[in-house]
Each structure stands twice: as C-alpha cells, then as structure tokens.
C-alpha cells in the first residue's frame, strides 16, 4: 500500500505541474497565440491573405486548447520526469542510478531537439515544396484539426527518431548487443529507416528523406558514443549487487 500511496502522490504532483503550466499559458500568452506560433510554418507557405479553416462547430476552441496542453506538457516535462525518477530511484542499484539519470536527461533533450528540427526545418521545407507543386487552379485552405493531427504525428516521429543514439548506447551498455554487431547491421538500419519514413511521413520524397537521413546519421552517432562506454559485466554476483542498494 505504501508504494501505491507514493505512486498516487507522484502522479498527482506531475499532473498538477502540467495543469498549473497549462493555466499560466492559457492566461498568457493565450491558446490562440500559441496555436498561431504552431501554424506559422503552414501560413508562411500559403498564398498571401489565405488562412486556415475550421470545419467543426467547436474546433476553433478545442484545437488551440489541445495545442496549449501539448505545450504545457513539454514545458513541465522536467518536473514529470523528476517525479518518475523519484518514484523508481529507491529501488535501483547504484550502477542503475548512474545509468538511468543521464539517460532520462539525454532522452528528454534529444526528443525536444527532434521536435525543434521538425518545426524549424522540416515543416518549412515540406510545406514550401507542397505549395510550389500544387496547381495554380487550387487555393490551399488546410483544416486546423487535420493540421494539428499532422503536426502531432510528425513531432512524435522526429522525437522518437532523435532517441536512436540513446537506444544504441543502452543496448551496448547493458551488454545485450556488441558494437561490432550493430556496425554490421548498418545496411538493415538504412533500409528500415526508409521503410519507417515512408510509413509515418506524408507521401512525398522530401519529408521521407528528411526523416530517414537523420535516423541513419543518429545511428552512427550512437555507434560512436557506444565505443566510448564499457559494457556492463555479466558475471557480477547477486550478492555483490545487493550491497549496492541505497
């Protein structure tokens, strides 16, 4: 019961932090202003004077609220991760604590970097390519709900893609896979990267390359980092591990 009470306390603190940040962002700068920032890459590619449309009755209210909630979760992500870390840390060994904390920090930073890369570089390039490819007889007017769904999918895809170095380092550190085996699997990774990019991105060559190429490069970065670490010894006795608990 004590563990359940602790879990409940940590979940309430994490949810409370997200709610507080949401209320602050909803008050200032406001849900509409936050959505305008998110929609800027699309608006920049549309013809002068063209705006996005809302086909639902409550869509003009709900979509900015969802965007504000997403922004609140990202802003409060350090607090949420700290609550998760504080819950599991007492049950970890010393070597697990030394591994877990850097992984949490690096994975959070890389996920945010993936979203930033998608927003500042991928969106502008893809939207400009689509706008120039569209026939002159068509006036694009994207729906804001469809745009939000597209943005969330792309953010998630690029955020997970930027986690590849962490996954590679974790596999090597835990001794599950050797660096030489991962190096030999480069060809499969390249093919898999383009297959994944073809599934999760829009059906255009530009966005597929912009997801597959960083995935391959980040895999190489993970291999470089994995060469610098020492895999965990597999012959450690359980009695020796028990002495490492805090």
Automatic annotation (TrEMBL):
GO terms for molecular function: proton motive force dependent protein transmembrane transporter activity. GO terms for cellular component: TAT protein transport complex. It is a multi-pass membrane protein. The keyword Nuclease does not apply. GO terms for biological process: intracellular protein transmembrane transport; protein transport by the Tat complex. It is found in: Cell membrane; Membrane. The keyword Amino-acid biosynthesis does not apply. Keywords: Cell membrane, Membrane, Protein transport, Translocation, Transmembrane, Transmembrane helix, Transport. Signal peptide: none annotated. It comes from the Bacteria. The chain crosses the membrane at residues 12-35, 67-88, 100-127, 147-173, 185-203, 209-229. InterPro entries: TatC (IPR002033). Pfam families: TatC. The Tat system comprises two distinct complexes: a TatABC complex, containing multiple copies of TatA, TatB and TatC subunits, and a separate TatA complex, containing only TatA subunits. Substrates initially bind to the TatABC complex, which probably triggers association of the separate TatA complex to form the active translocon. Part of the twin-arginine translocation (Tat) system that transports large folded proteins containing a characteristic twin-arginine motif in their signal peptide across membranes. Together with TatB, TatC is part of a receptor directly interacting with Tat signal peptides. Belongs to the TatC family. This is Sec-independent protein translocase protein TatC. The gene is tatC.
């Amino acid at each position: 019961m004590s563990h359940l009470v602790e879990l409940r306390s940590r979940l309430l603190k994490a949810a409370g932090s997200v709610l507080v940040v949401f209320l602050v962002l909803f008050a200032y700068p406001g849900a509409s202003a936050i959505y305008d920032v998110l929609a800027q890459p699309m608006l920049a590619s549309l013809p002068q004077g063209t705006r996005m449309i809302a086909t639902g009755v409550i869509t003009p209210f709900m979509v900015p609220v969802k965007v504000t909630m997403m922004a609140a979760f990202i802003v409060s992500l350090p607090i949420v991760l700290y609550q998760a870390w504080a819950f599991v840390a007492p049950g970890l060994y010393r070597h697990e604590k030394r591994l877990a904390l850097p992984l949490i920090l690096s994975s959070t930073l890389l996920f945010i970097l993936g979203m930033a890369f998608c927003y500042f570089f991928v969106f502008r390039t893809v939207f400009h390519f689509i706008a120039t490819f569209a026939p002159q007889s068509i006036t694009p007017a994207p729906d804001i709900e469809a745009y939000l769904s597209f943005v969330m999918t792309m953010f998630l895809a690029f955020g997970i893609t930027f986690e590849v170095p962490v996954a590679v380092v974790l596999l090597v550190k835990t001794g599950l896979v050797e660096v030489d085996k991962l190096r030999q699997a480069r060809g499969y990774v390249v093919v898999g990267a383009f297959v994944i990019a073809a599934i999760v991105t829009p059906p255009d060559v530009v966005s597929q390359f912009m997801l597959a190429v960083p995935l391959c490069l980040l895999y190489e970065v993970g291999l470089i980092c994995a060469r610098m670490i020492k895999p965990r010894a597999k012959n450690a006795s359980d009695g020796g591990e028990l002495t490492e608990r805090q």
